[in-house]
């Protein structure tokens, strides 16, 4: 049986990788995948805590996080595709649509 601390360490490593991906990379798709990695690492932590405390609360929260992640994928990918069609790039430094 794997201890809950191992899951939490794995979750922290995955979350750190996601944060580094968001801060370092300039490609919008890579940043998007890094955000998904951070959401999944949080889900892993919730499941580990739910398993340790024998509760269902963590699993319910994971369900809501999965719903939010699915909506984020739909809206985010639509925005990235539209930006790529109009600018022919997904580099976040080159996209300045909201600047006045």
What does this 3D model show about the protein?
With about 100 residues, the protein is mainly alpha-helical. Helix content is about 80%, strand content about 0%. The chain has helices at about 5-25, 30-55, 55-85. Helix 1 packs antiparallel against helix 2 and helix 2 (about 30-55) packs antiparallel against helix 3. The radius of gyration is 17 Å and the shape is elongated. The model has no long low-confidence stretch (mean pLDDT about 90).
Could you write a compact summary of the structure shown?
The chain has 100 residues and is mainly α.
Helix and strand arrangement:
Elements: H1 4-24, H2 28-53, H3 57-87
Mean pLDDT, rounded to whole units?
Answer: 89
Low-confidence stretches: none
Instruction: Output the helix-strand order.
Output: HHH
Largest sheet: none
Strand content: under 5%
Distance between the termini: 56 Å
- What is the overall number of helices? 3
What is the CA-atom radius of gyration, in angstroms?
17 Å
Count of DSSP E strands?
0
Helix content: over 70%
Overall SS class: mainly alpha
| Overall body shape | elongated
Identify the quaternary structure here: single chain
